[in-house]
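Exercise 7. Given the components listed, write out the predicted structure of the assembled complex. Treat all entries as one system.
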Amino acid sequence: MLGFLTRRVLSAVVLVFVIASVTFGLLQLTGGNPARSIVGQNATAQQEAQKAAELGLDRPLLTQYLDWVAGLLRGDLGTSWFTGQPVSATLADALPVTMSIVLAGLLLSAVVSVLLGVAAAVRGGWLDRVLQVVSVLGFAVPSFLVALVLALFVAVRWGLLPATGYTSLTEDPAGWLRTITLPALALAVGAIAATAQQVRGSMLDVLRRDYVRTLRARGLADRSILFRHALRNAAPPALTVLSLQFIGLIGGAVVVEKVFGLSGIGTAALSTAAQGDQPVVLGIVVVTVVLIAAVNVLMDLAHGWLNPKVRV
Amino acid sequence: MKRRTFIAATGTTAAVTGLAACAGGDGEGSGSGTSGTLTLATVAAPQPWDLTEAGLGNNAIYYQPVYDPLLRLTADAELTENLATDWSYDETGTVLTLTLREGVTFTDGTVFDAEAVKANLEHTRTGSNEASTNIASISSVDVVDPQTVAITLSAPDPSLLTNLANVSGMMVSPQAIGTPELATTPVGSGPYVLSSSGTTAGSQYTFTRNPDYWNAEAFGFDTVVLRYMSDPTALVNALRSGQIDGGQLTDHRNAAPLEGADDLTVTEYVTGDVDGLYIWDRAGTVVPALADVRVRQALNHAMDRATIIETAKGGLGDPTTQVFNPESTAYDATLDDVYPYDVARAKELLAEAGYADGFDVAMPDFSAFFPTAQAALTEALEAIGVRPAYETVPPDQLINELLAARWAMSYFTLASFRSWDTILIQFLPESLWNLFRVEDPALTELVTQARNTLDEQEQADLFQQVNAYVVAQAWNAPWSVVKGYFVSNDRVDVQMRSFAPAPWLYDFTPAS
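Answer.
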């Protein structure tokens, strides 16, 4: 177990390093000129050069890169070129926003898709057919459209929930829940569609197995068979889909954050990449890769818990 | 939705239609009652609190709650006292003496005095952002006595006083200058202080009253919240659901969802930009044809300005042939009739210049940013036989490539506020946006004369001559005075401001 974890963590470290280096390289390839963007279109060439020197952009690329890696090893992600804020502070502000909506979206899609999937598999009939249609729809409708419609009706027309903004959990838990509900819902729709299909499929598979028939023959209650035995065996494929959804939700958050005016990782990634704010972009990449690697490790552990056969 | 049009009260035109309760003149700061919270959307990403890194334009509003400027501008751009109570130039126009207000302290307890002014101006000047650029003419600041400073300039600067009423003239506690904390925590003497609760750096800033502020009655709100909203959809939703009290929209298409919202007022106003075809290569370095004034005039006649505004810009904007702001002293309405849309005349002028078959010209591809404008430009040029070839470069390199004088002309938008500001960035031989460093002795002579004239009326006449000369020489082929929308709800009254891309904090009062 420990060996497995160590291997996973080590490979995650290598992954972070490789992806961050590639990102660094790609940012150089865009050939942008951050010093000019910072000083504005009316600054002289001399002011631009002064800014470039301040940021250390006049040094050789390799020096800049090694400096950044050295900082990373010390846990120092540097300072934003544009706002002067430490990158760690920017991430500390943005990460809770994105994690709130992504995790809430994930939780929502896990619960709803299990309920829907199991119901469709067990009941069949019209419920199953409705679910099929709704799933295709949920798949086809992009999350930004769901977000726009939710914002327009629930927030603007009916005034039920705030249209934009984010209240932190520590400041006001009720306010936090109100601000993340619509974005999480917008994110969850697509994930529910995909995961519910998966749950339905594997439930149907499992319910046809011999051991289920045996359990029935022994007179176990339907509920017990369904949730204690069948669902547990049907869960691993659904879990795999869900972990992939997590990565998808982080991507989807970029658009959903924009619609709801949230300053999360997605918004930060978009604006800093457009500006060429290299330290922040690299910081975001590192954090995202770490998150995804962590989710993968957790999923492996969950698989082991669900199915002793894959325990290591 | 209520619509209103704002036309500045400077000069002779003063007409406000629709729901325009705001009188010009000294309406600002007259809010008697104090109440509640003012929440505004900002469209520019926040910058550091150290003024060496500060921008102007849409960034100015971040600094206005916490830092007080030396002078103040009323909404129609008249200078009034603020931290300086009196100001005067010597007879050469190169030494400015300021008398300072007594009894003002910064929020860290430091006293505001001549030393503080010296420390601030000398510090801000060393930066590389716009606030620094605007006081580049200051060569030294001398303390005469604790309440008097003498500012010496390298040459007369007709814009200095108004710049001292903006971010460049804002005062930071001298104790805080140069400390790393200033990047994230402002220390000033302004009407508000930054509150840590309700503030998330980069996205939302909450300000509460500074209890010791000397002029508290000029600010009608107890709390000011600035929210950075980069997305127009989020901005419109926030306005419609009452989450914010005001925000600006630059694209006419974004205003459509506001139809039917009765508590919102949409004010159309001049943002201070002039867009159109800028002819950079007036001397014909890259494209020889452009050296001939008849060719440049032909380009002007080729522009169907009214139609372009109607189709490419949704009717938002006023046609013009001048790069000077209509509210500035240099503006002359009659100049807008110099180049009527006339394709036949344009072709005739081209033929006279020896370009009956037109000519080729390389231009930057702006289709990613201004697709409709570029399409309109292409159509206008091709109609008179000029053949544009668009070159694509990555977006963040566009400005640098333009500045490197790569293209002879292009569609562009340049800020145009006061007469001297416009001359400074476009018409001096060394001006940044005189891309090919073209020098016309007659123009330089007029500009120098205007700069050295201290009498305002005489100076205004000279600025008009500069403008008339540039239009006659067809240095550019402008299209329109760019306009934008400012949307506010019925909880606040807002007075639009001359020479600013959006209203300042001083321009908001609680609705009466």
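Discussion: Chain B touches chain A at residues 45-48, 50, 53, 55, 128-130, 132-133, 183-184, 197, 200-204, 227-231, 233-235, 237-238, 240-241, 243, 394-397, 399-400, 403, 415, 425, 432-433 (CB under 8 Å). Chain B has two domains: 44-193, 272-483.
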